[in-house]
Structures are given as structure tokens and as C-alpha cells.
Amino acid sequence: MIRDENILYVSWFNPENSFICPVARLLERRLSPRYSFAYIEGARTALAQGFTPFAGFDELDGIYESDGLFPMFANRLVISSRTGDPANASVLDLVPAGGDPFLVLARDSRRERTEKLELFGLPATDPDTNDLLYRFLVRGIRHVAFGEEAALGLSPGHELYCLSDWQNPNDPGAVVLRTTTPHQMAGFMPHYLGEEVARLREAGAALRVLVERVNPSPAPRHQRLMCVMRARAMPGFKPFSSFRYMPVNPQAGY
Questions:
Q1: What pLDDT score was predicted for residue 111?
Q2: In degrees to the nearest 10, what's the CA dihedral of 48, 51, 57, 61?
Q3: CA torsion sign, 16 to 219 to 176 to 42?
Q4: Torsion of the alpha carbons at 167, 170, 172 and 175, rounded to the nearest 10
Q5: Dihedral Cα 25, 31, 34, 35, nearest 10 deg
């Protein structure tokens, strides 16, 4: 779907205590200045967990604009340029050449245990049904018993069920994914989708999680399973619009 503005969110992770929270937002516009960076309210919460503003974006209430992609993101895009390899592009379901840089950054964010940043974008929209399409790589396969076995036993079109992991000490909003038959845990949804699932359910939206790609070895485990969550869009529902996604500086707009 073509938008007048493209949005990429930045989530910060503290590997020492497993705290994770969205902290910033990058806008891409058609008009100059093309890019605009601003912190969101989640950054205030993250400060108490050890977060410090990023280099070049020192003020929490600052609005930073440029016609070129900021180095913080451009450098990650260079690292992700290996997606030009058709094999890796296939793993991530990306067009090998000429792809949307925001899509590449979001799809190939590759958050490892020691990686402090994760990038994600807005859901796409199914042009036929108007469903919201949240595409994501399943997390934590190595943290659930027989997760690898469960993932490799799936194929495109298989449905996965969402289970609340509210007793999880690191993330009470965590959502576990399990297979339908047999009942096996396949991993977790990304952190940022936990809250989104809760908001969608509260709005009465119908949800389904379907497998889109299964990537066996030599693909790394964190790219093993790509899924899509389909959510029937409810009137007035806006993705990623809870308080923590609001800009610290209201002049940044929403």
C-alpha cells in the first residue's frame, strides 16, 4: 500500500534484564525534508531501564530532519545489503533488487541476544479484504522445548494459535505461538506485537496467524519461521497508537 508517509519504529532492548520497549520513530515523506526522527513516549519509560538517547539524537524532545537517511539507519541498511543475495532475499521474502529500504530494515532487523535495536514498520493492508497484515519472524524458537522441530514441521498456510504468557517475568505481555496438530510450542511473537494483539482483541478484531515461509538450515534460527497475522480492521482502529507510541514532542505530529 502506498502512503504519503512511511513509518519505521525503533525498539530498544536491554540484554542485562531483557527489558524491551519502542523508543523512537522515523518518518519517510515524499516532500523535503524527506526524513524525520523523533522519540516517542516509550523512551521515557526506557530511561529508567538504562536507555540513553542515540548519538546524533541527543534531545528527547528534539525533532531531527534530513533529506538523506540518517547514518544510524543507513549503516544498518549497508549491513542488510546482503539481502541482494537471492537466497537471503528469499528467506526474508524480499525482492532482491530495488526494494523499499524501510521494508528491508524492518524485515532484516535480526535482533540477537546482544543486539540492542530492533526495527519494525506498520502492517500492510490486504487490498481485497482490507485486513491488516502484520508480517514477522518468530522469536525465541530456541527457548521453547522442541521449538525447532515444531517450526520445521510446518509449511506455508499452516495456522498457529496465540497463547498469552502473562506469567512471563520478563514480558507479561508475551504471546506464545503453538501449532494446531500436534500441540507444540513454536516460539514467540515479537514483543511489539504482544500489546497489539491485546488492543486488537479488545477492539473485537478477528485474528489469525498463518505461516508464510519455513527456512531450514543454513538459514539462521532467528529467520527460521516467517508468519503473518491477519486482523480484520475495525472502524477507527489505528495500528501502534497506544500512549507509548505518541511523540514526546507533540509538534512531531502523529
A1: 53
A2: -20
A3: positive
A4: -100
A5: -10
* Helix or strand (DSSP H, E) at 36: strand 35-39
Mean predicted confidence (pLDDT) in 30-42: 94
Residue carrying the nine cell digits 535482533: 111
Cα–Cα distance measured from residue 69 to residue 202, given in angstroms and rounded to the nearest whole number: 37
| pLDDT above 70: residue 4 | no
Domain 124-237 has CATH 3.30.70.2330: yes
The domain locations on the chain are 1-122+239-254, 124-237
Helix (H) / strand (E) element for 208: namely strand 207-214
Which helix (H) or strand (E) covers residue 9, if one does? strand 5-14
pLDDT surpassing 80 at residue 88: no
Instruction: Report the alpha-carbon distance of residue 143 to residue 190 in Å, rounded.
Output: 14
Nearest to 105 by CA among 69, 54, 58: 69
